[in-house]
Design goal:
single chain, alpha/beta, five-stranded mixed beta sheet, two-stranded antiparallel ribbon, elongated
């Protein structure tokens, strides 16, 4: 190198070593950047990254007259910028002597006496902690080789680790590895001499680095695959779409084969669930996740494979139809339709007898329905606060969180105003997509985003997480406010709260005892298990010694003189990690839920609200859908035959003999694929008319059905219209 005189080729320390044969010139990039007497006077493509060759020659001549205060050789091109300091040195010598070089603004250099140092409070304890980059121990001392994060109290790093990280991540991805802060962290690291190159991350520049990730597993592994076109058949946006295991991604299932809805995310294969079960982190509560809503025909959880006791019925076979007679409002009094006969090829025997294979489960579902009816009445009472003044929210479905946040924070937004949703990124929305349907869709997307956001942690039953940036931006308050507004304005409930989170909101965190299942962090959970299942005092003390730093940081260190002391220690750790650690987000979240008086009602009716906040909506059944609609018919229409075809079709859909699902039918009519906790306003109705194809009037929640001569015609018209309408909307 013409500036430092060394032959070393070490890009991490001295920058890229470049040789220009035409100019007979070799130079280290950092030596050139930090030289005191040279500036970039050219364009980026001139000379050496804007440093003109003539200027480099002049700088070499200038440095040749200066002696390095470290190695005592000539060519010291870098000088300390401190006033009255006359020290000069080569760049490699400065690194060796622990000088600071600031790769920003004027590219200043400070000698070993005048270099900037990080300030630490005198009362701050000294010790060791773990460098979160290399995971080795680092001494908490104000020395050159150690740097402290400016944004996290107990985050310490090796200088060398930070420099390697900065060179790899670049200016766009270099940030605190603990709290993810970027601006404050980068500013401090630049001040302390870390070079952050203005480039993209190294992993983004590698060609075809993510090529393997583009290969998706497409195979149904359920023991009894129901798809007639084979296990490898995959049709997106239908019941035959293949969903992969959320844990391993190497197993799959058709939606229909596991009785899943198209929007459900949490499907896990048998192998992964067995691993979770053995590790103890897959509790019974977690098994009833988003994808494990109960079927109403008494079968097992939806994550299990379909029971061989419930085979698909052929169209010609008889089966019990678990529907009560539909509500029929007509001009003439008719006898109740308790038994209706279909054409011979599609005969359905209807029975009002419920399944009694699992009496306890039936009673539990009945109790859950009663609680949800109670919640519906409470929410309707709260909705009386909503006035007719309209607030429009412009929503981008592809960026649902930011656009919702912007809308909720706008000056004219009020929870008591009627909300109108306008999707800005959908140019050709269907005319049937009314304001009510758009509102349903908006709140559904918003609740789904919250479930998968960094504000919550856990697989299915979730607790609040600790996100410092979210606390700073008051996002926990906004999340609570959005959930309250969704409940009162006819949107869905979140349905993913853990019992612990719900109890903290209702009874206060000081009255809640968390369980091991509430710990989402695998390492923390493993530490708690080691303490909990220690079988001797020596093994317990050894475990405590191994995790001493963790216990000290959590404030859970206590004298252990007997094996029974482990129970108190486990309890302390659980309370710290699950409750005390997130006390600030929890309080902010509670304040948000006070919107429109929702939290107050939760505290007055905890059992009722637990049914919608801690449980997903009950899976639709033919009985539920039939009960939901009231049939209207004029005097010139055969009401009995129309109801007969309608109920027969619902049974076909429920048993899998249709290309659509019960959720598709509800979406076609109301714009929502689940029944919101508050219910539908107006209540869904059915009209039988002399029309060619069925029509879903989402403004009135009215399903207009065609009058046909045969059941086959009725079924074909229903499937053709519903499937094509919903497919067009998705596109």
């Amino acid at each position: 190198c013409v500036l430092c005189g060394r032959t070393d080729d070490c890009p991490e320390k001295y920058g890229e070593k470049r040789t220009y044969v035409e100019y007979n010139l070799t130079v280290h990039y950092y030596c050139l950047l930090m030289s005191s007497g040279i500036w970039q006077r050219g364009e980026e493509d001139e000379g050496v990254d804007g440093f003109l060759i003539t200027d480099i020659r002049k700088e070499v001549n200038r440095a040749a007259k200066l002696t390095c205060n470290i190695c005592k050789k000539k060519g010291a091109s870098i000088g300390c910028v401190a006033p009255k300091c006359k020290r000069s040195y080569h760049f490699p010598c400065g690194i060796q002597k622990e000088c600071i070089f600031q790769f920003m603004e004027d590219f200043r250099s400070y000698c070993w006496e005048h270099k900037p140092v990080q300030k630490f409070p005198d009362r701050e304890s000294r010790g060791t902690s773990q460098c979160t980059i290399c995971l080795d121990l680092v001494e908490q001392l104000p020395v050159y080789t150690v740097l402290k994060s400016p944004c996290c109290k107990n985050a310490w790093f090796h200088r060398e680790c930070l420099q390697y990280q900065a060179l790899s991540a670049g200016i766009f991805f270099f940030r605190c590895t603990v709290c993810n802060n970027k601006d404050k962290f980068q500013k401090e690291m630049l001040r302390m001499g870390i070079h952050i190159p203005e480039k993209d991350a190294s992993w983004e520049l590698e060609e075809n680095a993510y090529q393997d990730l583009l290969q998706c597993y497409q195979h149904c592994d359920i023991k009894r695959c129901l798809c007639k076109k084979g296990r490898d058949y995959n049709e997106p946006d239908s019941k035959w779409e293949i969903k992969r295991c959320q844990c391993c991604g190497s197993r799959g299932t058709h939606l229909a084969c596991s009785s899943m809805k198209s929007w459900e995310q949490n499907w896990e294969c048998m192998e992964c669930r067995s691993i979770f079960a053995k590790s103890g982190s897959y509790s019974k509560q977690k098994k009833r996740s988003l994808a494990t809503s109960e079927k109403t025909d008494g079968t097992t959880c939806l994550l299990e494979e379909p029971s061989p006791k419930c085979p698909r019925q052929s169209p010609g076979s008889q089966r019990n139809f678990l529907l009560q007679s539909p509500k029929i409002m007509c001009q003439n009094n008719l006898p109740p339709c308790s038994h209706l006969e279909l054409p011979a090829s599609n005969r359905v025997t209807m029975s009002l007898s419920p399944l009694t294979s699992n009496r306890n489960w039936s009673l539990r579902k009945k109790h859950l329905r009663q609680q949800r009816r109670e919640v519906s009445n409470i929410l309707k009472e709260l909705k009386l606060q909503v006035n007719t003044k309209t607030t429009r929210l412009n929503i981008n479905a592809e960026n649902i969180w930011n656009s919702a946040l912007k809308g909720f924070r706008q000056r004219n937004f009020s929870p008591t105003n009627t909300i109108e949703i306008k999707f800005t990124n959908c140019k050709d929305r269907s005319k049937a997509d009314t304001s009510a349907a758009s509102k349903h869709r908006f709140f559904q997307l918003l609740m789904l985003h919250l479930q998968n956001s960094s504000l919550f942690e856990g697989s299915s039953a979730k607790n609040l997480s600790l996100d410092f940036q979210a606390v700073k931006e008051n996002l926990y308050f906004e999340a609570g406010k959005m959930i309250a507004v969704s409940l009162v304005h006819g949107g869905p409930s979140p349905g993913f709260f853990s019992k612990t989170l719900f109890n903290c909101l209702v009874y206060g965190p000081e009255n809640v005892k968390p369980a091991l299942e509430d710990v989402a962090d695998v390492d923390v959970a493993q530490t708690i298990k080691m303490i909990k299942y220690a079988n001797s005092l020596s093994s317990l003390q050894s475990t405590i010694h191994n995790c001493y730093e963790f216990l000290a940081a959590a404030g859970c260190l206590r004298p252990v003189t007997a094996l029974c002391d482990k129970n108190m220690l486990v309890n302390d750790i659980l309370i710290h990690h699950v409750i005390k650690r997130i006390i600030s987000p929890l309080e902010s979240f509670r304040q948000g839920l006070k919107t429109l008086g929702v939290l107050e009602k939760m505290q007055m009716h905890p059992d009722a609200f637990s049914s919608i906040l801690c449980h997903k909506p009950e899976r639709l059944s033919a009985e539920t859908v039939c009960d939901l609609f009231t049939i209207h018919a004029s005097s010139d229409v055969n009401k009995v035959e129309g109801a007969e075809f309608w109920m027969g079709y619902l049974q076909d859909v429920e048993s899998g003999e249709s290309v659509v699902t019960l959720e598709d039918i509800l979406l076609f009519v109301t714009g929502s694929f689940s029944i919101p906790p508050i219910g539908f306003v107006p209540e869904p109705t059915i009209k039988f008319l002399h029309i060619r194809y069925p029509t879903g009037n989402r403004l009135l929640n009215c399903l207009e059905l065609p009058i046909t001569k045969t059941y086959e015609q009725f079924k074909n018209k229903m499937e053709f219209t519903i499937r094509n309408t919903l497919r067009a909307e998705r596109q």
